[in-house]
Amino acid sequence: MKIVSVRQMREIEQASVRAGVSLDDLMENAGLAIAEALRDRLPSPGSGPALVLVGPGNNGGDGLVAARHLAARGVAVTAYLFLARASEDEKRDLAVDAGVEIVHAFEDADRSKLAAAAAEAGVIVDAVLGTGRARPIEPPLSELFAVIREHAHAQIVAVDLPTGMATDTGHMDPNGLEASEILVLGRPKIGLFLEPTGAPWRFLDIGIPDGLDTRISTELMTSDSMAGIMPARPARSNKGTYGRALIVAGSESYVGAAYLAAAAAGRAGAGLVTVAVPDTIYPLIASRLAEATYIPLVEHGRNAIDSGFAAVQVTDASRMATGMLIGPGLGRTPSAVEFIRAVLLDRREGPRLVIDADGLNTLATVEDWPGRVRGPAILTPHPGEMARLRGSTVADVERDRVHSAQSAAETWGHIVVLKGACTVVAHPDGRTAVSPWVNPGMATGGTGDVLAGMIVGFLAQRIDPFEAAALGVYAHGLAGDIARRSTGEVAMVAGDVLDSLPAALRQLSD
């Protein structure tokens, strides 16, 4: 499913008109779809009442059409017109004919009618601005919203976008109207994923003809699109069919990182997982993960990898691998940094790469690293690691996460997985996939190791690297959602996500 900016959505609507579906058709379809979506909140005639907040533009028109359909089903509906609409307004007149009570803000000087309607409403529909916000929300609009916040008991359902959210940046005006649910019209707007509020959203089909968004390169990951790239499991197969994942990870201080990544690679379906870990921690991991094979990396002292010899060990092992992950938990000691550089830089042959955590931190110390790393590699930075790689700040990275990932991928020539709420996967050629998952429970140590392991597990099965990264991100988020429903956000740990992977992958495979 494509994700669009304001300009792109307008272009799609214009193309729809050229294809024979008018803007009025789209508005009528949108209003009906909104009314249908509210069935679960207004289940029977006479239920409600519903309060529809109406603005001056097309978003308000959508709201009036929805109000008309709700009234036709026996729901008591008040449409509160926040701002003046055209004197000749067919949608308003049709709503009145259907039994909708119209209240104009200019006729409600003391705001008593708005306060009463907000207090009595069973559902409140925000159809004030949608994508039409062009400037800060100020009086009188901000004062009207304050009345709603003070008196409303019902949840607020936003049409397309909550009023106050900027379509292309996701920035929410402090005087805006936060939504409990968002009903997305036509195509999801990119701002929803740049500064996600956590409010659930539903996509409503408003009749835009297929094929009008083919030039848009940013897509939302969906269960259908990700299920389509799940690796096949033919009946006549063996462990070699599903590839070999080599994981280079772990140190005395971060034993769990190697375990979590390796276990996730196995759960992702890699036929064979080989773990290269420092010799001193090898027994700790091997005793817990019996399914993997191991390469104990030579050390020349406690927590000090012998960079030269260990790099040869990894290079030899990589000749049989179909995907390699390097970085989780390796640490930043001088010997670890030297080892990572020896493995990653100026290698012309080897398996496809996933570089995570301390692998990325090491690259950030090498000025010309993009051209010295064989690629396109898959880089999996969190915002702090991304800032170090770019020589910028976390605030700069987070200001526009999609553009940050896209520009970095294009500049570096590598696939970028920018982790966080609504993780972004960007390819150097411009293709971009955005995760729908927002889960505060996954903001805990080790979940990134699970993700890196999943990606290399899919990569080892010879999936296209961009698709392997997107599938890993989506399945990881789905597993996190399953874990959240079981344990709650506060109690979640990375092991819960790992334990939920089988259910997530089974859901995608069914």
Structure description:
The two termini are 20 Å apart. The strands form 3 sheets. The protein has a 10-stranded mixed beta sheet, sandwiched between helices. It has a 7-stranded parallel beta sheet with strand order 3-2-1-4-5-6-7, sandwiched between helices. Strands 12-13 form a two-stranded antiparallel sheet. It is of the alpha/beta class. The protein contains 20 helices and 19 strands.
Number of helices: 20
SS-derived structural category: alpha/beta
Tell me what the CATH architecture of the largest domain is: 3-Layer(aba) Sandwich
Q: Residue share in helices? A: 40-55%
Number of domains: 2
- CATH homologous superfamily caption of the largest domain: YjeF N-terminal domain
| Terminal CA distance | 20 Å
Query: Strand percentage, roughly?
Result: 15-25%
Radius of gyration of CA atoms, rounded to a whole number: 26 Å
Describe the largest sheet. 10 strands, mixed
Mean pLDDT: 94
What gross morphology would you assign? elongated
Q: Which fold does the CATH topology of the largest domain refer to?
A: Rossmann fold
- Adjacency order of strands in the biggest sheet: 8-19-18-17-16-15-14-9-10-11
Query: So what's the CATH class of the largest domain?
Result: Alpha Beta
By DSSP, the count of extended strands is 19
Spans of at least 5 consecutive residues whose pLDDT stays below 50 are: none
